[in-house]
Known about the structure:
Order of helices and strands of chain B: EEEHEEHEHHHEHEHEEHHHHE
Helix content of chain A: 25-40%
Number of helices of chain B: 11
Largest sheet of chain B: 7 strands, mixed
Number of strands of chain B: 11
CATH topology of the largest domain in chain A: Rossmann fold
Shape of chain B: globular
Radius of gyration of chain B: 22 Å
CATH architecture of the largest domain in chain A: 3-Layer(aba) Sandwich
Shape of chain A: globular
Oligomer: heterodimer
CATH superfamily of the largest domain in chain A: P-loop containing nucleotide triphosphate hydrolases
Radius of gyration of chain A: 21 Å
Distance between the termini of chain B: 52 Å
Amino acid sequence: MSTSGATDAVMAPEPEPPGGGEERPLLDVRNLHVEFRTREGIAKAVNGVNYSVHAGETLAVLGESGSGKSVTAQAVMGILDSPPGFITQGEVVFQGRDLLRMGGEERRKIRGARMAMIFQDALSSLNPVLSVGEQLGEMFRVHQGLSRKEARAKAIELMERVRIPAARERVKQYPHQFSGGMRQRVMIAMAMALEPELIIADEPTTALDVTVQAQVMDLLAELQREYNMGLILITHDLGVVADVADKIAVMYAGRIVESSPVHDIYRAPAHPYTRGLLDSIPRVDLKGQELYAIKGLPPNLLHIPPGCAFNPRCPRAQEVCRTDVPPLYRVNQERASACHFWKETLDDDSAPSGDA
Amino acid sequence: MTDTVKGAAPAGEPILQVRNLVKHFPLTRGIVFQKQVGAVKAVDGISFDLHRGETLGIVGESGCGKSTVAKLLMNLERATSGEVFYKGEDITRLSGRALKAVRRNIQMVFQDPYTSLNPRMTVGDIIGEPFDIHPEVAPKGDRRKRVQELLDVVGLNPEYVNRYPHQFSGGQRQRIGIARGLALNPEIIICDEPVSALDVSVQAQVVNLMEKLQDEFGLSYIFIAHDLSIVRHISDRVGVMYLGRMAEIGTDAEIYEHPTHPYTQALLSAVPVPDPQAREQRAAGADSGAAAGRGRIILSGDVPSPADPPSGCRFRTRCWKAQDRCAQEQPLLAVPEVFRGSGTPAEHESACHFAEERATAEAA
């Protein structure tokens, strides 16, 4: 924690207009730190994450496994396993109030009703011994105190809204009787049930086939537009991100290393890690050549390298990268990059790979 | 590891010929008196050739039978009917010693590097185990050295020979799996989703390794995956499977640039492109009608159950071109008549009565 103290000042989130009603983001995560205290030592999973989402906006959080993208989401939702996980610093401001300072009862009212989460693996997130209708109806019975009968009617309505065919019959069925795509629709229906302002989707389509993935992403985008929700999409798929996101936050070793509007980042990444990820996508015009590969492995969170966490794998690493943690430099009004050499990375990109 | 190019077969000659391969898994009812009430038609008449030194990619959604094909080629499952000719010999009926000899030349790399390595065995034992089964490949005293050579070949430190799988990351484990596949100097390696479980930045490393090994040892790959961009990168030819049948097969450019089967077209259009500008283009295309423009085709519904596949063309229940003929007559995998002798890239095998190219970006 001690090394990051200096950088926090630089990484301070953009100054907000005082009391700016329209400008205020729906969710504002500020300098969030999460660690897991394990027998082997303290794993620093999230080290000072800042991001914000406005109503109707889609933020994609991109990262590999172990980058802290899901842990951040769990901390925001308040479903972090604790112990071993502990939030050591930071604020999660949702509609102007810091969730981390709320009591359990208060948070429970927000969770599900105001913000909801869609998980990756629908089969293991749904209860196998309850029918789909009961699970959907539970949302209404617990949060709104509806009767069983009313809740069932609502459940059918929801299933129709996420376009599950023959909803009236299928409401009695159990999760195993649904296909993967349909199960994910049930998950979406459940998250949508109380019309929350914010949805966090953690790899919602990773387990699905491409043709089904397209259906599910379409549905999600449509519902988002309809209800003007904020959406945090957690994924490692650069294709999905390009398809739906408004802005992107790239995470590496528990930090946001680059944040940017979606078009800019694909055109010219300002961080070598982002650049490496984009370059390792197979391209048609480079077939037959070796794929660009980021060398090495993602760091062990128990032993994050000193300086920039990416320095052992970075083609651009200099002495300063091994000693000083790069602050999140402001590239322009909307972009930021945590690289000492973001200018060079940005310029370098515009020169050689000039693909249209 | 040096005597790589075995036999005198020149490059390009078919090394593996698959003819009408069928695998039905029986569905039974009853406990004491079991009777068969149906069958899951996992693979239902597949034919293709694998040439020496080439990579044949097989793509398709889950449940289309691509992994069953891999198991049939390895003879891990017995085919219900059909033949697999390896150097002119049908290997589906082999057993005992003859089968063992063939398996030496056909090896497999599995999807999940976490479950396909025995956690109680050291890396040296895992990679050396093939030598226990085929002792003629490496004499006993020589084995440790061979294992270390193999580790070096796949880019791992040879000193790791006494470590256990849990001490390695996913990408490193997949390298161990590849080293095990290489141990017997096979001619063919069947890779069933070899990079699907790996992180994006590590996928590229493993794909590069596999391409390097192919050049070095003259291997032929069957590369099964659902990631279309990786398959395109590594494959010389690509086959698209749907519900136990081959929908379309051709060179990578033919399949990706000039698909004529509606399923292939839908599959390719559904892949999210890592370029935000494609979004606007696609939105523009969608307005002018999904089937006509370059817009995304979103298929409705799910893949039907392979236990009860549709009659005729299997794709007809989700196809926007389907007509009566599709329900009655099964389309055969052949070059469609309209393209026969045309000399265009659309001239490749496609199992559709109404095969045609979509208007591409260049044409529009």
